[in-house]
Amino acid sequence: MRTPTRRSTAPVDDDALSRRRRTIETGALVARSFGMASTAVAAAGIGAGAAAVASDDMRLVCWVGVATMGLSNVLSYLGRRRPDSRWYPWLNTGQSVIDTATIIAIVALASRETAETTWPLLAPAIAVAALRHRILGALAVFAATTLGFALLVPGTHDLFYLIVVGFMIAVITGTQSSALDRHLRALDETRRALQHQATHDGLTGLPNRAHLAAYADRRAGRPLAVLLLDLNGFKQVNDEHGHAAGDLLLHEVGARLTAALGEDGLAGRLGGDEFLVLLPEGDSAAAARVMVRIRDAIRRPVDIGDGRAVTVGVSAGVALRAAGGDADLDTLTAEADAGMYRDKRGRTVAA
């Protein structure tokens, strides 16, 4: 009797892009919290930064800035929790808009009311936009900070330096971030392809033994019906029409199994012409209903090219695990394997 070899399959970690997003949000939370604390201390008239907060307008802008940075931190926290959420791009964009508007207001008012050179504080907003939105985001924030500073601080001699430095930062950080993003996406695509190859049969595209074992392990202690299928007449197809025809037949059988099951369970290929079907929460009645659909699907002629068609049948064995049962997939497959051979012998005798 043939039973699937149990293989441990570690859960797939988050993809590289999600990890990068979490890293960005963690950095944003830390940096923004430091900025909130520094701005609040200055607005309260404490420390050396208090000299830059000399007017009521400046103090009000600083306190509003603390509030808006707090709002951005809330968005950053939500984005860090669910970096793969469909809402992440909106949370990401919201932070960029709020942070850019906040820093423009604080820098512009500080430049108007003090002799301090504050425009370099706009550079981090451009760099962060590059991390979040790549080259287009960096250039957009560069344009916004430059235009905002020019309108709010008219006639400033710092505008030229702001344009030169800001544009350089936008291009350098934006292109590097874009290149890293492309690299991470390519890495994730390769990783997903390798993961699929490790858990699926290369010929039929169905789950392989490792995938089936992991699927069953996740349902330990719960009802499970296991159907082991073996094609009748497959060897004759290989002998008479060649292995290429046999491969076409196996591929078509895999597709028909998937279609016959629908959402009721999972079909996989063990090897050769043997297939395994797992029915979660399945009982004998469910297994019988599914077997009727499977037999009807498989017995239909299969086109193998050049106007040729072949027909095969299927022998099957069933094993059941009741709720609370401790039988693992190997045990259930061995039981179904014995039933399948009894079914095959019975069909041979009947023939």
Automatic annotation (TrEMBL):
This enzyme's EC code(s): 2.7.7.65
Top-level taxon of the source organism: Bacteria
Transmembrane intervals: 29-52, 58-78, 135-153, 159-175
Record-linked CDD domains: GGDEF
GGDEF domain sequence ranges: 222-351
GO MF: diguanylate cyclase activity
Stored InterPro entries: DGC-Regulatory_Protein, GGDEF_dom, Nucleotide_cyclase, Rev_trsase/Diguanyl_cyclase
Keyword check for ATP-binding: no
Keywords: Membrane, Nucleotidyltransferase, Transferase, Transmembrane, Transmembrane helix
PANTHER family according to UniProt: DIGUANYLATE CYCLASE DGCT-RELATED, GGDEF DOMAIN-CONTAINING PROTEIN
Protein name: Diguanylate cyclase
The species this protein was found in: Actinoplanes sichuanensis
